[in-house]
TrEMBL record:
<keyword id="KW-0808">Transferase</keyword>
<feature type="domain" description="N-acetyltransferase">
    <location>
        <begin position="9"/>
        <end position="165"/>
    </location>
</feature>
<dbReference type="GO" id="GO:0016747">
    <property type="term" value="F:acyltransferase activity, transferring groups other than amino-acyl groups"/>
</dbReference>
<protein>
    <submittedName>
        <fullName>N-acetyltransferase</fullName>
    </submittedName>
</protein>
<dbReference type="Pfam" id="PF13302">
    <property type="entry name" value="Acetyltransf_3"/>
</dbReference>
<dbReference type="InterPro" id="IPR051531">
    <property type="entry name" value="N-acetyltransferase"/>
</dbReference>
<dbReference type="InterPro" id="IPR000182">
    <property type="entry name" value="GNAT_dom"/>
</dbReference>
<dbReference type="InterPro" id="IPR016181">
    <property type="entry name" value="Acyl_CoA_acyltransferase"/>
</dbReference>
Length: 177
């Protein structure tokens, strides 16, 4: 797993030092409003231990990145990929004070480019509830296409770019670039 750096953030592979920020995110009522019921601290600590264990699994089933300022001094979110065959589902959470600044868009762009380029994924999916406007706009503007979904959910899919078009990995045709 690599450290991914963009102009305004870095995605650092989740590590033992990230326990407190992980617990704070999963316990935050505002952040979890559209995701799942917030976790009480003991449950969040257990979930963090499991995430760390998954981080070491080979072949990977899940991988996690902590979202930080480029100098690594402030942690403001978490992104993850859950792998299934040649695809993966992307999830992302930001602390409320850091939302609405385009940081999730920048993180999604970097993570997709990395996953298509380095992990040879053929597609990346995402899902959220119908009333999650921020997630809807995030994935729509990142170039994801609507996909079939069960009632009450919205699903998205982003196909790997063709080498000619560039797409997520750097061409001009894809909104992720
Ligand atoms: C979804 C989430 C990651 C977006 O993070 P963010 O950093 O605010 O996203 P960005 O600033 O990159 O904005 C992405 C788009 O969402 C829009 N947006 C951001 N917050 C919004 C809000 N509260 N309501 C409506 N739209 C919103 C932005 O305007 C932007 O749309 P635009 O390109 O049309 O301007 C963040 O709201 C979050 O952590 N939510 C809780 C967890 C969650 O729902 N995760 C998604 C499921 S995996």
């Amino acid at each position: 797993m690599n450290l991914l750096v963009t102009s305004r953030l870095q995605l650092r592979p989740l590590a033992g030092e990230d326990g407190d920020s992980y617990v704070a995110l999963y316990g935050n009522v505002t952040v979890m409003r559209h995701v799942r019921p917030p976790l009480a601290e003991p449950e969040a600590r257990r979930s963090f231990s499991e995430a760390l264990r998954q981080q070491r699994e080979v072949p990977p089933r899940r991988r996690w990145w902590t979202l930080q300022t480029p100098d690594g001094t402030e942690t403001f979110g978490l992104a993850g990929l859950a792998y299934a065959g040649v695809g993966a589902e992307l999830g992302i959470l930001l602390r409320p004070a850091w939302q609405g600044r385009g940081l999730a868009s920048e993180a999604v762009r970097a993570l997709c480019a990395y996953a298509f380029r380095e992990q040879a994924l053929s597609s990346i999916s995402a899902r959220h509830g119908l009333d999650n406007r921020a997630a809807h706009r995030l994935f729509a503007h990142a170039g994801f296409e609507p996909a079939a979904a069960p009632p009450g959910e919205r699903h998205w899919a982003l196909a790997a770019p063709s080498p000619i078009a560039g797409g997520c990995s750097g061409g001009a045709a894809n909104p992720l670039t």
